[in-house]
Amino acid sequence: MLLAETSRTPAPAAAPRPEDWRELASCRGVASSVFFSPDGERGHARARREANAQQICQDCPVLAQCRDHALDEDEPYGIWGGMTEADRRRHARRLRSGSRR
Ligand code: SF4
């Protein structure tokens, strides 16, 4: 009887690979130009593009993984985990200065 009950038990899900978070990203299929600035982009155009990207990130189910990846790898370009390049530079400066704000 125990064997019969055991055989109905669903197989445990395979442990997710660490890189699997990318497969769940809300930005899959979105043009990379939404997340990465073209040469010479400035001012309102840049702010508008970054806001559009951050809007996509806002509800992304893997925002935390994406942001952690970008911070761990010191990603210099693009929007990652809802953070702009400037956001990540500020974050790194705060860490270097020992501030936790
Ligand atoms: S947080 Fe933003 S950049 Fe990161 S995977 Fe999600 S949608 Fe893409």
From TrEMBL:
Coiled coil: none annotated. Binds 1 [4Fe-4S] cluster per subunit. Following nitrosylation of the [4Fe-4S] cluster binds 1 [4Fe-8(NO)] cluster per subunit. Residues 89-101 have a biased composition (Basic residues). It is found in: Cytoplasm. Its cofactor is [4Fe-4S] cluster. GO terms for molecular function: 4 iron, 4 sulfur cluster binding; dinitrosyl-iron complex binding; DNA binding; metal ion binding; protein-disulfide reductase [NAD(P)H] activity. One of its GO terms (cellular component) is cytoplasm. Residues 1-20, 77-101 are annotated as: Disordered. Upon Fe-S cluster removal intramolecular disulfide bonds are formed. GO terms for biological process: cell redox homeostasis; negative regulation of DNA-templated transcription. Residues 26-90 form the 4Fe-4S Wbl-type domain. InterPro entries: 4FE4S_WBL (IPR034768), Whib (IPR003482). [4Fe-4S] cluster binds at C27, C57, C60, C66. Keywords: 4Fe-4S, Cytoplasm, Disulfide bond, DNA-binding, Iron, Iron-sulfur, Metal-binding, Transcription, Transcription regulation. Acts as a transcriptional regulator. Probably redox-responsive. The apo- but not holo-form probably binds DNA. Belongs to the WhiB family. This is Transcriptional regulator WhiB. The lineage of its organism: Bacteria, Bacillati, Actinomycetota, Actinomycetes, Mycobacteriales. The gene is whiB.
